[in-house]
Amino acid sequence: MFAAKKPFGLMDNSFQSAGKYEGIKQLVDYFYDAMAEQSVAQKIHAMHTDADLVRRDKLTRFLCGWLGGPRLFAESYGPINIPKVHAHLNVTESERDAWLFCMQKALERMPYDEEFKVYLLDQLKVPAERIRQMSQVAREQRSHTAD
Questions:
Q1: Rounded distance between C-alpha atoms, residue 107 and residue 59, angstroms
Q2: Which residues of the chain have pLDDT under 70?
């Protein structure tokens, strides 16, 4: 089990609690494995068009920084605005929930403190919802320009 550092969300406590880079990489691998295996995730799995290793690397690097660790995503890929990057996708409540379901499945496999698992999934709901909202705005804008 990875040692939990509390309070989560303070400085790099979440990054440490997630097992640093190696723990986050394992979580991401479990997440994408769940996405490929779960029938509820077929649509979101198809949305991830990057090569498998690239998308895993991108999410691992993003989560490292998002959890208070080193900003590895920006070092490799440049700045990112998660909702805007996903705005072109059709993300509804169903896709958001499927993504979170796969993350929950991945978290179940991780040797994290149970309190940290709950905390992390709850925190991930925020960007997941922002992606859904941005996708909805983009869909509405596209429908207005198509008129």
A1: 15
A2: 146-147
